[in-house]
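User: Structure tokens for this complex, please. No commentary.
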Amino acid sequence: MSGDIIELIKENVIQGRVNKDDEGIGEDTIGQPGVTELIKEGLASGVSVSEIINNGLTASMVVVGEKFENEEYYIPDMLASAEAVGAAMELLKPHLAKSGVKPKGKILVATVKGDLHDIGKNIVSILLRGAGYIVIDLGHDVGTQEIVKAVREENPDYLGLSALLTSTMVNMEDTIKALKENGLRDKVKIIIGGAPVSPEYAESIGADGYGADGFHAVSVIETLNGGN
Amino acid sequence: MPREGILINKPIERLSGEQIRLIHDASIEILTNPGLLCFNKKAAEIFQSHGAGVAGVTGSDTPCWHVKIPEKLVSDALDSAPRMVTLGARNPDNVLIMKGDEPRVFFITGSETNIWLDVDFSTYVNKADPTKEVKLPEFQPRRGMVADLCDSAHVCEHLETIDGYIRTVNIQDKDITEDNKDVNKFFACLNNTTKHVMSGLTSLKQLDNVIKMAEIIAGGSTKLKENPLISFITCLVKSPLQFVDDTTETFMEVCKRGLPIVVSSSPQAGTSAPIKEAGIMAQINAEVLAGITLGQLVNKGTPVLYGSVPVRARMDTLGDSYGSVETSQYHVDCTQMARFYNLPNYSTSGVCDTKTPGQQSSIERLFSDIVVALSGPQFLHCAFGLLDCNSVFCLLQAVLDDAHFQMIKFFLKSPRIDEQELDTVKKQIREVVATPQKMFINYIRPVMRSGEISPPYPFEGDGESDSVFALANERLQALRAKPVEHIDPDTTARIFREIPGLLPRLNVYKGESKS
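Assistant:
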């Protein structure tokens, strides 16, 4: 029974089906249980959280990664699968502590003040959730003090700052300065991303990393996380 | 199922209805005043026997007749010429059905070039910084051989954007003579592609051998009529307004046999036709109408294509300037004229002036490929791989052209906007707007897999370097490695038994070196 459920979870993550209304990329899938329904069914029937995470979610993302490498899958496919894993993790969150499974880390993301562009930040959020992180998305056009407050309250392991405009990227530097002034800089690792920024810019403003795109951002955070 | 081609939703037009009528009237007038010079006696006699004004020209070194074609003969010919022409193929899935009143475009290779361009890649190292190197193509021209024609037909078989095949290279092997060229070039094409094969004829004496070969492949003369897997192209009218003796003879003999044929005229604005658009249009239209009329007089109902290959002269050399913008204008005009007559149109695009693949070649060919295709000619001879105004063929360029045509074909698809589609997207918009992330990415996936999203340019390199040639060459080598769907052994054996003049090395089942 547990094996069947795990296989179905795996199959549906690969299909990128969050719930029964998702069509994924298979035929006649609509109406069939998706990842969230299967997780609920699994938990109800006593399948362990660690088995769901290790043999269902993580194992399926390995397959998705291979498909991406082989150009069988494209970024929308990766995102769909990551979103399915993210939805699964939300459901599993209340069960993590008692099952002894720890999330990889907590990350707070925001598009900085004056910038309304959030596609990149949203993609990074989906991918990070899919990779097993807890993501708190502060949204776009987020003021420096609002970010400082959230860092103080949420105590995240990482802070991701995004900007698309040369006129708003300077607010990343202001944010880092404000974190220093509030004694919070050393409590959080900061990575930045967005079209106008670069590794050199990240270094110049004192960020810990730079993500060229969504996948690179996840990889940088995994490295900062000690390769976990 | 025949090939679909691309149905142009709203073909571009340059000429108004009034301008089309004016060109038609001018052409009809030109056919009687000044009329045409005819260097073929049989053709002059046929015209005369059907009421055309025919008079011997005195003082000419070669026998020549002055022919004035009355409007009635032209209109009768336009009535009897089929509105629909089928171009068959060895593989039934590659059959082309062309309707004069339907702007459905098929993309076909050609023409015959003398020069084959080999490509090799060399690596150049920056003297100042030896860590920097670049790989660049070097092009070596040489005479085309029958092995090249086989190679080209095979590669074009696997290029999906190509709907049919006109031989791309003139075979100039030492053992190729005027007497065996036609059978060998047709066999080389037919044995290496299952798509339709069109060619001109070098020697009329070989016509029946070529047709017999096609009959053997098709399964008999009736089957060949039903599935004409070969067709012909002739430039029987040399501009301005002259029926050439030998090509007119060839044209009439093909017409008698009822196989599809292109009546092609290729005047050059500025030299063999007036430089003004109105002038070249009135003249080319008169020349094509004269050819169509002769064809219908020879054999009523002969399937003909209105063939137009007009070009503007270069001002520096008075050579052809296929890359000129006016040349594309003439082609669009001709497509409109053919549609006015409800006849399938053989048109030309993609011929460039430059001698090697590169930026100029891409710009020139893309410009005409896009605009001429948009006008909706049924048979678009789109100069796959051709360079230097039809003098040079390069397979690397053909592979690059295939990428261009993937883009063009995608662009030419009809828009899918209907109530059902709009209901679906309205639902999507409402659903997405209600989510925190407000992204439509989830809806991409089924669309991406249904072929509704255009593919990326296939030769895009990594980083800032331009890797187009190197990547296109990789694709070329991959295509060359694909299997060849040859004619089966029994049919091949029969062809080699019954058709004289075939080069033994073209028989792939004889254990001799393949071409």
